[in-house]
Fold this protein.
Amino acid sequence: MLETSMLEALLCLFIKHFICDFPLQASPWMYKNKGTYGHAGGLVHAAIHGAGTFIALIYWFGLSASLFAIVDMIIHYHIDWAKMNISMKFDLKANNSEWFWILLGFDQLLHHLTYFAIIAIAFNLA
C-alpha cells in the first residue's frame, strides 16, 4: 500500500534526522562553524545528512535516492547556516533568550517539512 510505504519512509527520515542532527553532530568543529558559509564543519554535517537520507530511502528508490540525498544535503546546509547567522546576529543562546529555543524549533520544523516534501515528490515520481 502506497500510504504505508510513504509513512515508513517518512519515519526513516525522522529517525535519520535525530541520529544525524544530534549524536553525529557532537563535534564542536561541526556545530560551531555552520554559520561560516563554505566551512568544512557545516559541509560535513550536511553531507552526513545527505548520506543518511540516501540510506533511509534506498529501499524504496534504489540509486535514485541519491537525488533526494543531494537535495536534502543542500537544503539542510542552508537552513542550518541561516539559523546560525540569526543566532549570532542577535546573540541568541540557550541560557539568554527564549528566542534561541523558538529559532531552534523553527529550524527543526523546516527540516521536517523538507522530509514531507521529499516524500511527496519521491512517491509521486515513482
The mean pLDDT is 96. DSSP finds five helices and no strands in the chain. Residues 47 and 73 are 6 Å apart (CA to CA). Helices lie at 2-21, 28-31, 40-61, 65-89, 98-125.
